[in-house]
Every structure is written in structure tokens, then in C-alpha cells.
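Re: that backbone. C-alpha cells:
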């Protein structure tokens, strides 16, 4: 009997040991598989980052980087006659542009954000008067373009809102939009009519700044700032104020309306939450969907590669099953002193999802040539403008409504918004009460 008991205990011990070994092997194998999967994702992210920061060609000089960036932008140069960091291989032009851009946005301290909030409110009211031909309906994309363009005139050239001709601003932004669409067609030539409309509008809007020499033309400064901003502001405002059905996201917008802009530069919870609204807009709708680089600095060699920023920003393997939904709370755990929590080295042995998210987020570029607005200014501008648009027009919950001119877009509130310029032209805002 004792022998039988001993055998039974031994058998049970053997079975338990075997199960333990199988379980251990399973978890070791699972860990290795997870590590391998994360490493593959990391390699894919690094591939896009290397294109964006020029390192796909190894070590490069500033002259080479400027040429690698400017060659794919040749059509923008042809269309808008720009001479700035994005279209030149001349170091002097590049540095002059950077200096001027940094000087223009440098006064953005707490007191200046308060003043800019007041200016923005005034610009929204004045812009509204030029879109009152069919109340209570407003062509939303056109309105946001005019408002953002006018705010840029104030920020970059210190133009008082009372001195802005909003009719001319509407002409200028319409012409820019049409010319930009044409520039994307390799078989299209720029419209001489739209170029002339834009030139004449700028001369009336900026009589003291307008010069015909390319290097001092105000469009060199206006285009990067305006084009970086207006689409993200429009799409973020629509996403959080008119497409959102998540109560937590609604609360985040309400808190931002209560705290912006006085929370800026306070390094507190209110600022983190407000900037998360902008960060999520930049993630889902990056200002530059693809960053193009030439593959050679040699004239006549026209190969191009692209870092697909939008694809990286929307990768479900990195951002989760809800990657295509607008949820600013995903940025609540990010550090408050920068746009990315990515470590300097992209070869960390213990890779996790948070690390991958940090590397995956580069809406203002990466490496030695980031956007001048990347150090907080851009995010604060987006948060401020989204909040002021909400204060001015209200939200879906308060009775305002957006007609998208598309049945599928109208119904699929959890899907990303179409972000092409022509997609947004039919969006109409219906204001509660018509005022």
C-alpha cells in the first residue's frame, strides 16, 4: 500500500513538473515571439524615420540635406515661387528663413498667449461677417482657412485684425488651395490666373511687407506656417467637437475650453490635457502625410523615397485597436516637455509599446531639420484655435451640426475623416440659432 502511495506521489510530481516545464516553455516561446514582433515593428518605424532625418543615405552635410529636401519640392517652387528652407539648397536662404520664423514665434509667453486668444476671437468674429451670405450655414473649410491665414498675418507680420481685409484673405486662401491641388498633378501647369489673384491679394494685405524679390517675399514665411496649421485645426475641431461620441473626450474638450490659454507653460495637468487634444489631432492628421526625399543630390537623378508619417501614426500594432479613432487621452501619460518620449537611441534591447509609440510620433519631422514650431508652439496654436472655434461655434452636443455632403462620412462617426483638400470643400457648418 505504501509503495502504491509512493508511486502515486511520484506520478503526480512528474505530471506537475511536466506541466510546469510546458508552461515555462510556452511563456518563453511567447516572450520570444512578442520580442520578435516588436523588433519587426521597430525596424519598420526606423525605416521611415531614417528617410525623414536623411540618414537612409548615411552621414550627410547640410548642403546635401537641403538638396535632398528641395528636389522633391520643385513643383511647389514652380507654383508659388518659394525660396525658403523647403525649396532651396542655399544655406544662407535656409538660415535666414529659420531666423525669421523663430523670431516671429518667439514672443509666445503666457501673456502673449492671452493676447493671442483675444486676437483670435476678434478674427473669428470679423471673418464671420464675410461668410454670412447663407445663414445659418457656413462653408467650414473656407472659413477655417481664412481665419488661420489671418491669424498668421498677425503672428508673423504683427498686422492688427482691424487692418486685415478679410475679402482679400478669402481670395488669397482660395487661390492657394487651388494652386496647391494643381501642384500635385505632374501634368498640370500652375494657373496664371490664380497666381495673379494670390499676388494681388498679398500686395493689398501686406503693402509694407510685400516685395517681389523671391528671398524676401512674405509667402516664403506664410506658406509653411499656414499650410502646417489650417488642415490640422479643421480636422481636430471637427473630430472632437462634432464627431466625438466618447464622454471622456467630451470632458477633455470642456476642460480645455475652461483652461486655455491660461494653462499654457504651467507644466500642470490642465496644460497636459489641453496639449493632448492637439497631439492626437497631429497623430491622426499629420500636417505632412508623407515626407519626400530625393535619393541623390546629383542633378538629373530624380529618384524619390517617402516616409509615410500618416501610416506610422495610425499603425494598430503600435497605437492599439482604436488607432483610427480620435482619443486624446492616449497622450495623457506622455512627458510634458516635448512632442515625443522617444529615447535618443532606437536600439533599446527591451522594447515595449510605449517606446514604439514615442518613436512613431513625428508630426513635425525628426532629426536636425524639424519644423520651427515643433518645440511646443505648434501644439499650443492648434489647441488654442480648436478651443476658440469651439467657443465661437459650439459643439454637436450644443446643437451645431456639420453636413459633410457624403452619406458614409455622415454615418461613420468613429472612422477617420477624409482629409484631402477636395474632400473637405463640401463640409457645411449649420449653427444653432443661426448666429
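Recovered sequence:
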Amino acid at each position: 500500500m505504501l509503495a502504491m502511495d509512493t508511486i502515486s506521489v511520484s506520478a503526480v510530481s512528474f505530471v506537475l513538473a511536466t506541466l510546469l516545464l510546458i508552461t515555462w516553455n510556452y511563456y518563453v516561446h511567447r516572450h520570444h515571439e512578442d520580442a520578435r514582433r516588436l523588433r519587426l515593428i521597430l525596424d519598420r518605424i526606423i525605416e521611415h524615420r531614417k528617410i525623414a532625418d536623411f540618414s537612409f543615405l548615411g552621414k550627410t552635410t547640410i548642403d546635401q540635406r537641403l538638396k535632398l529636401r528641395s528636389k522633391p519640392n520643385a513643383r511647389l517652387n514652380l507654383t508659388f515661387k518659394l525660396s525658403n528652407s523647403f525649396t532651396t539648397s542655399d544655406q544662407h536662404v535656409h538660415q535666414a528663413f529659420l531666423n525669421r520664423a523663430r523670431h516671429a514665434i518667439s514672443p509666445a509667453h503666457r501673456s502673449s498667449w492671452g493676447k493671442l486668444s483675444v486676437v483670435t476671437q476678434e478674427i473669428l468674429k470679423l471673418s464671420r461677417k464675410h461668410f454670412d451670405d447663407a445663414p445659418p450655414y457656413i462653408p467650414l473649410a473656407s472659413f477655417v482657412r481664412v481665419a488661420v491665414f489671418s491669424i498668421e498675418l498677425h503672428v508673423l507680420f504683427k498686422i492688427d485684425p482691424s487692418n486685415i481685409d478679410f475679402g482679400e484673405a478669402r481670395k488669397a486662401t482660395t487661390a492657394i488651395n487651388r494652386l496647391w491641388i494643381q501642384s500635385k498633378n505632374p501634368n498640370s501647369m500652375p494657373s496664371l490666373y490664380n497666381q495673379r489673384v494670390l499676388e494681388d491679394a498679398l500686395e493689398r494685405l501686406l503693402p509694407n511687407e510685400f516685395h517681389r524679390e523671391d528671398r524676401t517675399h512674405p509667402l516664403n514665411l506664410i506658406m509653411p506656417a499656414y499650410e502646417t496649421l489650417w488642415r490640422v485645426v479643421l480636422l481636430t475641431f471637427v473630430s472632437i467637437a462634432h464627431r466625438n461620441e466618447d464622454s471622456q473626450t467630451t470632458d477633455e474638450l470642456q476642460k480645455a475650453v475652461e483652461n486655455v490659454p491660461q494653462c499654457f507653460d504651467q507644466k500642470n495637468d490642465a496644460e497636459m490635457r489641453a496639449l493632448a487634444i492637439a497631439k492626437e489631432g497631429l497623430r491622426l492628421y499629420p500636417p505632412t502625410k508623407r515626407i519626400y526625399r530625393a535619393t541623390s543630390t546629383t542633378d538629373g537623378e530624380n529618384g524619390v523615397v517617402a516616409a509615410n508619417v500618416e501610416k506610422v501614426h495610425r499603425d494598430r500594432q503600435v497605437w492599439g485597436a482604436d488607432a483610427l479613432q480620435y482619443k486624446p487621452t492616449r497622450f495623457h501619460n506622455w512627458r510634458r516637455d516635448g512632442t515625443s518620449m522617444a529615447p535618443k537611441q532606437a536600439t533599446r534591447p527591451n522594447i515595449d509599446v510605449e517606446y514604439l509609440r514615442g518613436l512613431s510620433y513625428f508630426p513635425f519631422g525628426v532629426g536636425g531639420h524639424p519644423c520651427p514650431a515643433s518645440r511646443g508652439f505648434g501644439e499650443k496654436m492648434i489647441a488654442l484655435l480648436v478651443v476658440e472655434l469651439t467657443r465661437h461655434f459650439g459643439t454637436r452636443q450644443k446643437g451645431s451640426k456639420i453636413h459633410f455632403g457624403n452619406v458614409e462620412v455622415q454615418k461613420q462617426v468613429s472612422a477617420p475623416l477624409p482629409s484631402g483638400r477636395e474632400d473637405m470643400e463640401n463640409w457645411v457648418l449649420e449653427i444653432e440659432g443661426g448666429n
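The first helix runs from residue 2 to 52. The beta strands are 137-139, 290-294, 304-308, 401-403, 428-430.
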